[in-house]
Design goal:
388 residues, 5 helices, 6-stranded mixed sheet, Immunoglobulin-like
Length: 388
Amino acid sequence: MKSILTVLFGLYLLFNSSVSLSQEVIPVRVAAVSMWSDTNAAFNLARIDSFSAIAAGDSAVLVVFPEACLQHNPGWGYITHIPTAEELDYLHRTAETIPGPSTAALEGIAARLGLTVVVGMTEVDSAGEHYYNTAVIVGPGGYIGKYRKVNLWDASSLGNEHLCWDYGDRGYAAFDTPAGRIGILICADMRIDEAIDSVVALGAEMIAALSGWPVAARVVYLSTTENVAIRSGKPLAVGPQVGEAPNATFGGIARILDETGSPLSETPADSEGVACATVHISTGINQSTAIRPTDFHITAYPNPFNSIVRIDIAGLAPCGVEDYHTRVKIYDINGKLVFSDRQGCLSIQGKEACLYKWQPAPNLPNSAYFIVATCGKTHSCTKVLYLK
């Protein structure tokens, strides 16, 4: 049976704009924590509680903690260090399922303080076989979700995380919270365009990033975090590890950036502390550069004789760039990129239309997929169902 692509749902829009026509721009008070962690989960949990109280005292409704800060990881570091048996034993022995005991403790903190809390930890799967560098997110109403780090700091970038944790197997993630829809990235994810684009495609209104960035790469850390905000067009809160660890030294600098990459609040380098600022989130439409939802169309035409799918994008309005330079990416339901048109489509002035051809990989499963069109800094997306 030949591949069939059926459009299931109407058009919905994802825009990177601070000017809204359909909704108010919403102010949200957020915090990010620069924190040193020890190989003592109870100690670290008590400090998470204390820092959360500071954030709540500054009227924050969201607080972002560092990567792997709950239990820490004594074997963590550059590729020149091979984790010892003792270090791996600690990592495995202290890993927890999610939800689990520490998740329950975090839920208590969130409920008591009225916060949404994002914390990095080592997770073990229910079978006790795989260990992940995971971000857990809880709110005043309880557990919300988790994200397993996809892009480990591995040998390709001189790190040894692949010797400690398994690569995330659930794709990228964004979660609805009382503070808005939050996309989650963990450290090395921030250097991967696909990771940034994926959380935007999943509807993130703000990005929370957890980090353990070496002090020696501080300049890269600062430029990378700014690029995340600029590329996504979303506010960014980054909670980093700081201080000496057995096999690494982390540089800290918790940051709150607006959607242009400009810092709103930062903690001092090489110090613990809480950065707090008010950001503005919106799912509305950019007044000057938007594609009008009544005019914009994505239509898929399956070929009955082969698996190639024709994707027409029509009704484009000016995007704020020269001509109408539009690109298409397709994501699975976990946020993994499965297709990207590398050449792009330059539509003819006046016609305001683009044509793409997608030939799904033979191993692509039956599932719902997202077709995302990007024009300048404006995005639009439609859900589709792929059957074969």
